[in-house]
Amino acid sequence: MRDKRKLDDLKIILYYSGKVIIGEALLYIVPFAVALFRAEYASALDFFISFCCAMTIGALMCALCVTKRKPNWTHGMVTSGIVWIFSIAIFALPYWLSGHYGSYLDCMFDMMSGLTTTGLVLIQDLDHVSDSLNMWRHLLTYVGGQGIVVLALAMFYDNSGTGYSFYVGEGKDERLFPSVTHTAKSIWKISLLYLVVGTLALMITGIVEGLSVERAFFHGIWIFMGAWSTGGFAAMSQNVLYYHSTAIEAVSFVIFIIGSLNFALHDAVIKGDHKEIWKNLETKSMITTLCVLTFFMSLGLQKFNVYPNLMALVRKGFYQLASAHTTTGFMTVYPRQLAKEWGDLALLALIIAQMIGGSACSTAGGFKGMRVGILFKAIVQDARRLLHPNTAIVNEKYSYHGARTLSDSQVHSAALVVIMYVFIFAVATVAGCMAGYPVIQSAFESASATGNVGLSIGVTAPSMPAYLKLIYIFNMWAGRLEFMAILASIGFFGSFFTCKRAKRVLS
Q: Which of 133, 124, 107, 125 minimizes the C-alpha distance to 42?
């Protein structure tokens, strides 16, 4: 009976995973249309084949796994975890068909990097990739920023009760409305509104900088998708440095700063509550850590006299740091310049920024400014308790979309996530050292993968060992989902082996 129950659980998980895959497959319409418009008929065929494969797999999963049982919390969490693995395996097919990758593992690496808005890449000859493939790459990181499960919720799901587990499992915990489906749709409305405004701003900037109208449009929408989703994918191998444009850097800076903020904060500002920006604990935390890290980065760069003037320091130094802190991954320097010129202190500032990341319930990665703020408040609260009698009740207050009181459960939850981030970061750092990379470079790349950032110091390359690619894939996945869905998935599938072992013992 228990085995049958477990199989029914698995059917529910596969059924909803199939729905998500169908939703993702519909996205192929966009690059397919671009391929036809640009007369890239070989790419159009690649996307058509990939669309047919993905729709077939998704439809079969839905047809073969129909069940009368309703999904519960566990089903939602496990679905949110494993659907990412299905996605990178299925939707990497256009990458493989393009001929720009050395192995299917490299394709899956870039797929996970895109969906988790990391931005590390193993693609070869990026400067000669078709426009339709570039559109697919950037569309993935744009959708991944909002969340692939959030996309499915907005398209297919209308149960506001059990749907919350799907939503939380994808690393989001802030409802804009009581209905989680309404929240998912609102997130997409906010993102699409910024897509129009941001693309237009970048397109005009590109035209002013000398790009043709058509080229300015495509590069504008690609830069926006990479910036807004704090994803870091770029159309050219030189990343943002390719444009050599202060104006494009400035506009992209504004977009990725806005993209790193909580969706609930966007909703509050759109509704007219502009004061929430300055009252919010998370905003205060991010501004504080950015200022502190800027100070130490500047000291490190000044020590080696890397940049001769303030403008260069802002464009090459501060831009990199802000890109790291928001987990965007846009670069205005070459990766090896970081390794050869910056020095350990400046690199350490970047590593810490990558690990902290942006806001909770945003497109950003890292363990989030909110958790840093909560842990700082916890330290202040404990210090105050030491100065008061044992009988005194000491509560720490903070503002986060309304007045709140710090609780022990919040501190415990924040500390647990930070510890787990640090643990997998350390594992990947050791793995990098085992592969022969220096400690500081291994730590940098590990922080970039774990924090879903995308800045590279030169470690990420098609030539790196397969085991390191797999570790980075895991870290990107775990970091994006903030461990809850991962642990639920491991526990669920582990229970199958537990049941089988118990059966053998009883027999």
A: 133
**Contact (CB, 8 A) for 143 and 136:** no
Q: What angle, rounded to 10 degrees, do the helices at 180-208 and 213-228 form?
A: 140
pLDDT digits over 297-334, tens only? 999 999 888 898 999 999 999 999 999 999 999 999 99
118-168 confidence digits (pLDDT tens) = 999 999 999 999 999 999 999 999 988 877 766 666 555 555 445 555 555
Looking at every residue in the chain, the average pLDDT score rounds to: 88
Residues sharing a CB contact under 8 Å with residue 10, sequence separation 6 or more, in sequence order: 65
How much is the average pLDDT of 225-247?
93
* Cα–Cα distance measured from residue 251 to residue 257, given in angstroms and rounded to the nearest whole number: 10
How many Cβ atoms sit within 10 Å of the Cβ of residue 17? 27
For the residues of 112-129, what is the DSSP string, one character each? HHHHTT------S-GGG-
Distance of CA 359 to the CA centre of its chain: 11
Quote the CA–CA distance of 108 and 90 in Å, as a whole number. 9
Torsion from C-alpha of 270, 275, 276, 279, nearest 10 degrees: 170
Pairing type for strands 397-399 and 403-405 reads: antiparallel
Inter-axis angle of helices 213-228 and 246-259, to 10 degrees? 40
pTM attached to this predicted model: 0.91
